[in-house]
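Troubleshooting log. The previous structure file for this entry was overwritten by mistake, so regenerating from the original sequence record. Sequence copied from the archived sheet and checked twice against the printout by T.R.
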Amino acid sequence: MKIYLKSCSLYEVKNAYGYGIIDGVYLVSGQDDEPCVAPDSDMNSIVRSINGPVFVRATGCTAEEILENSRELLQLGPNIVIKFKLSLEGLKACRALSSRDVSVALDGISSTAQAILGAKAGADFCIFDTKKIKPNARNESNEISICTSVIKLHDLKSEISTNNITDLESLNGTIQAGAQAVEVSYELLMKLCNQ
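Regenerated output below.
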């Protein structure tokens, strides 16, 4: 089970990494739904401060635009994972990057079928958006449980992860469902440690 900290604060990253409780960072940037507001945001220092993966969002609407932005982001360090939303153009960019041994994370996933598409395109990480899982799905935990089983059954290499977890109950449910990784805020991580 891996825990990735969703942050853009050097203090939060160093503190959580120093405790030995995170495996990597989802770096919040201006391209995310929630912009970085930390006064100590320093992308280069964050990337250098940990040994684990640092997920950085690539921008662009076409595969070519995503690939161009990815080339710039990869200059930040060897532990960069290029992250972008699953789409037809995203799948095309994923295939191109993974063929060059670049780590790719596809996010915005809401179903097992979408995760399979991402895994087949070569994504190292398929990230379920827990807010987007359809209400008619049995429930969030079942969808994730089924997905991890199907990925394993077909011997696909993608790690199944979740994001947009806002409370401890959802976090526990996601972990029990078999997600291989979770993205959590610093606030939620501290609540978990002080439960």
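The radius of gyration is 16 Å. Archived copy saved in two places this time.
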